[in-house]
Structure formats: C-alpha cells, structure tokens
Design brief:
Layout: E1 3-8, E2 24-29, H1 30-43, H2 47-56
C-alpha cells in the first residue's frame, strides 16, 4: 500500500494562549495527499488550516 504521512503541527506564538495543543499524524494515500495539496494551492489556504476548518465543521 502506497501511503503518505501528513503531520499537522499546531504552535502558538504566545504562551498565554489557553489552547491545548495536540500533534496529529495521519496516513494518506498518494491520491488523498494530492487532493489536499491541490485544494490548498488553489485556495491559498494552508493544509493545516484546511484540516482545522474541516474538523470544526464536524457535529
């Protein structure tokens, strides 16, 4: 199986942020990674931000 690993690193500039920071690693197929990168390039939205937006839309 041909997979690509995508790493999402969430960092905050200020230690005063009250967020819990999690590091998530996911395995994507080559096709999935290409779709994500293509969308990111077309919209100008960073891959990490695309993923965050999708997560926020979950019920």
């Amino acid at each position: 199986m041909n997979t690509t690993t995508a790493r999402l690193f969430i960092c905050f500039d200020s230690p005063s942020e009250k967020w819990t920071v999690k590091r998530i690693t996911i395995n994507l197929s080559s096709d999935e990674a290409m779709i994500l990168e293509k969308y990111s390039n077309q919209t100008g939205i960073a891959v990490a931000d695309v993923i965050r937006e999708l997560i926020r839309k979950l019920p």
